[in-house]
Specification:
It comes from Bifidobacterium callitrichos DSM 23973. Helix content is 61%, strand content 10%. It is of the alpha+beta class. Among the domains are: 143 residues, no CATH class; 154 residues, Heat Shock Protein 90. A hairpin with a 3-residue loop joins β3 and β4. The radius of gyration is 41 Å and the shape is rod-shaped.
Length: 435
């Protein structure tokens, strides 16, 4: 039985149980005893039972009515004596003490629990009402309101009110924690969905950039059209279309939120590329050979476009990155190559180096920008820079040679991605032959 269930049903079930107990006790006393009761006794008992049962439907209203009738029943003898004294002075007939049903104490205790659960003004007024009633009974010598009894009554009253307030507080706390978790979960899912959608968007942009550049090259040099280039263009177009479909599905919220894995492209030729671009955070790690494979693929694309240059990977340590850092690393490499395809001179040369150090991955890239194109840190690199900031990584862009005009238009990027084992659960081991 959960606390939510208990909090939602305890008042109803307890009111019904106490109400039935009071009704049975009234019937037993009025019908199966030899005592003579006033004619109004059945009506009085029925009203009291109705007030107790009302707590199951309207807890606060029923609790107040039950508490008031219970106080009236406990003080009835003294109150009637005071009224009779006044009536005697004016020569009127005296009245008799009304009959009150048994089991008033459990019903009064339940009403105090419910008023404590209601909290606030209800709780304060209930405590004041019991205090005034007990004090009035003690001052007028109404049994059993002696000093010890008054002390017990007030202690029990405060305890019941506090228990009711505690039940309410605990329920509010549980609901607040559940709401915080729900909001946090929704925000995490939303942020992850937006992050992955942005990554897929960048992937589409990169592929289209390669495709457009290749088509422009083939248009300017029809003799350079080969089956290999056409097959690559077709593959990139299909992959871009698949990514668009994945972005649409993700933005519509149809991706299973329990997993951060993005489905691979539908076409068989695109599956390896999808595996490289999006990693599963459920334990999958990326190592240096994945980077080597991606660099080789992207070098082939630039070579087809007529670029001169190459890439290299230095593995001083065999390191496995957490998927967060690995995701950024793969996206960064793709973004660098896309920028070179769009903005760099094919005959200016390019160089990309990825070094796995003991505590970080260092990515460096340089090329020569077109004379009419001075590209700095575009939107893709800026977004990756923001993603790297929480991981302690940096991206530095130097455009225009950085003041060194030995190579006019030179453009370079240096990115550092740390892999702290305590923070990212990365693991590094010395490679054979490393110092």
């Amino acid at each position: 039985m959960s606390w939510e269930w208990f909090e939602g049903h305890w008042r109803r079930y307890s009111a019904v149980a106490v109400g039935l107990a009071v009704m049975i006790s009234c019937i037993r006393e009025l019908m199966w005893t030899d005592a003579v009761y006033p004619a109004s006794a059945p009506f009085t008992g029925g009203v009291y039972v109705a007030c107790v049962l009302l707590m199951a439907v309207l807890p606060t209203v029923g609790a107040w009515m039950t508490l008031v009738l219970s106080i009236a029943g406990m003080l009835s003898s003294g109150f009637v004596d005071a009224v009779n004294d006044g009536l005697t002075l004016i020569g009127a007939h005296a009245v008799s003490v009304p009959w009150m049903p048994p089991l008033m104490m459990p019903a009064a205790g339940l009403s105090l629990l419910m008023l404590g659960y209601a909290g606030g003004l209800h709780m304060l007024l209930a405590a004041i009402a019991v205090l005034i009633a007990a004090g009035w009974g003690w001052l007028h010598g109404i049994p059993p309101f002696s000093v010890p009894v008054v002390s017990v009554v007030m202690t029990a009253t405060m305890a019941l009110l506090l228990i009711g307030a505690t039940i309410r507080w605990r329920g509010q706390r549980i609901r607040a924690v559940a709401e915080e978790r729900r909001i946090a979960s929704e925000m995490t899912v939303r942020d992850e969905r937006h992050r992955m959608a942005a990554r897929l968007h960048d992937d589409v942009t990169n592929k289209l950039a390669f495709l457009i550049t290749d088509l422009e090259c083939m248009r300017s040099d029809p003799h350079g059209i080969t089956g290999e280039r056409l097959a690559l263009s077709q593959r990139m177009a299909r992959e871009a279309l698949d990514r668009v479909h994945e972005v649409i599905v993700m933005m519509e919220g149809n991706v299973d939120d329990r997993s951060e894995t993005i489905p691979a492209a539908a076409h068989p030729d695109a599956r390896d590329d999808a595996r490289d671009s999006i990693q599963d955070d459920m334990g999958e790690r990326i190592v240096e050979h994945d980077v080597t494979a991606l660099l080789a693929e992207l070098d082939d694309r630039l070579r087809i476009l007529g670029f001169e240059g190459g890439s290299s990977v230095e593995c001083r340590f065999a390191c496995a990155l957490h998927a967060d850092a690995a995701d950024v690393l793969m996206a960064l490499i793709r973004e660098l190559y896309t920028n070179m395809a769009r903005h760099a001179r094919p005959d200016g040369g390019y160089d990309v180096n990825v070094a796995f150090d003991e505590h970080r991955v260092i990515v460096t890239a340089c090329d020569v920008a077109n004379a009419e194109d001075t590209h700095g840190a575009g939107t893709g690199l800026e977004r990756l820079r923001r993603e790297l900031a929480p991981l302690g990584g940096t991206i530095d862009v130097v455009a225009g040679g950085g003041g060194n005009e030995a190579i006019p238009g030179e453009w370079s990027v240096t990115a550092v991605i740390p892999y702290d084992p305590q923070k990212f659960n990365s693991r590094c081991e010395m490679t054979p032959g490393s110092n």
